[in-house]
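Notebook B, p. 112. Complex prediction, attempt 2.
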Amino acid sequence: MKAVTWAGPNRVTCEETPDPSIVNPRDAILKVTATTICGSDLHLYDGYVPAMQRGDILGHEFMGEVVEVGTGAASSLATGDRVVVSPMISCGNCYFCRHELYSMCDNGNPDAALPEAVWGYSPCGIFGYSHLTGGYAGSHAEYVRVPYADTGAVKVPEGIPDTQALFCSDALATGYFGAELCDLVGGEVVAVWGAGAVGLSAISSCALRGARVVAIDRIPERLRLAVERAGASDTLDFTNVDVVEALKELTGGRGPDACVDAVGMEAHAPGVQGAYDRVKQAVRMESDRPYVLREAIQACRKGGTIAMLGVYGGFVDKFPIGALMNKGLQLRTGQVHAQRYIRRLLEHIERGELDPSYYATHAMDLADAQEAYQTFKQKRDDCVRVVFQPGAAAA
Amino acid sequence: MLDYLTGTTLVAVSRVPRIRGRFAGRALLTAGATHLVYSLVTDYELGALRKLPYRVHLVLDAVGAGALALAGATRSDAIDRFVPMGVGLYELGAVLLSDPHGTPRAVERRAVTVERSEEEVRAFLQDPASVRTFSPEGAWSGDFELRAAPGGRGTEIHASASPGDLRRAKQLLEAGELATAEGGAAGRRGVLSALLPTLDTGADGDS
């Protein structure tokens, strides 16, 4: 089959690989009908996640058609089912899965020793997301093996097109998770850093819960989408304004009730602070650029909540622990527990309350993967998301 | 590690031509050999017999370093005087900077909690077929203790076992199968993948 593999920092290739196969009873094999490059894939592409090997198949946000099912998953899935799949590989049986904390699954990561050494405990496995999270083959391929398919693959109702269902896998689920972390009851002001697909999802999910949302980015087209499609009330271009001061003014001096970091380890920042983090990350003196996190902690109102959706991997410098403590902030984090949300999101889509289809700005072939990654990374041609449709092309 | 390095270095320096055969050489040889011997019997991570408490080891270090420095001070020849004195004072400084508790020893007893009843877990851990699956290298000693986890969280397994064996036992008990990335495809690997997987940046001869 054709698959997109990591070939070193800033290099991917489309190559012929063996087809995947069923190994365990709860496995399924999917023909991938739609898969997208996520912002967190760029951390792998850019070479900031250390446990990558040449030949690793990328991709974790996907959907497809079931072409083979193991005996242990046959009671919930059948050949021909159209399913959207959680990026998180979770057993569904451990303490964490039973409490719907799927991304913390104890049993999904076969390479748990490595993250245990770095982080103390291991999160779940993740498709195509380095050997820190299991070394599983990803979805930027014609076929993919789905472990614990009875837990991770959710059937898509008729009438929901791929362009809507696909993003329930990760981007929409992560944004929705962020809104949930903010504990909104209606009437709050939420500031969302990053208006990519995850940020737009967080904006629409917070707006759905009755919050007034301020979108922060530097790309005019993304700020336009934040208002016109996701439902943001206000926008801030962080290259033109002092974000902390602007948020203070927008909120009557109180500061946002909740702040969502939908950017993560490769935040762009103007000025000296941005250059400082870039240099330190480039020479590996810190693994992540925590600019957004610093700004969110500074901007957030006293007693407010910071929801960290953007991915961080290691250690950061100049973390404002004093502001966090003295303002009594809650810092809430995690990879999305997608299995908890996918069905709920499909219902929101069916009712017309959420529509993520506009994220899919670019359709490209696996064979053009290098160009696709560059287009997405550099946000060329107002790219929000590139979608590969290998199953559809092969049909 | 540092102790072995120090002992070996002292012995090696005692064989240097301008030092060998004179008082300084004999003093360094005695100090280095003694250091190596009591390091071998010290109760720490690289000790072979682990009989000598670490604090006694530090006292011997201090006494030996002091004796070396004092012995040097009794000599009039420059090499015989200043080489033992320098080495002794250096060693004394190293002792003063050492943590008297030493490096904590790695635990040999480990625990894992599984969402299963005590009866199920006991039966599983005593079943030879299960043991062959979760401990494929045969390292499972069979020495384990079960305790009820608080809050209805299942059963704690406390055992003298490798982390891998306990992880696999938990996977089998809870998920019914071993997590594996096998069966998923991969592209062409780099030469470094097998040796230094996390450092394989793909820069090794891509064509």
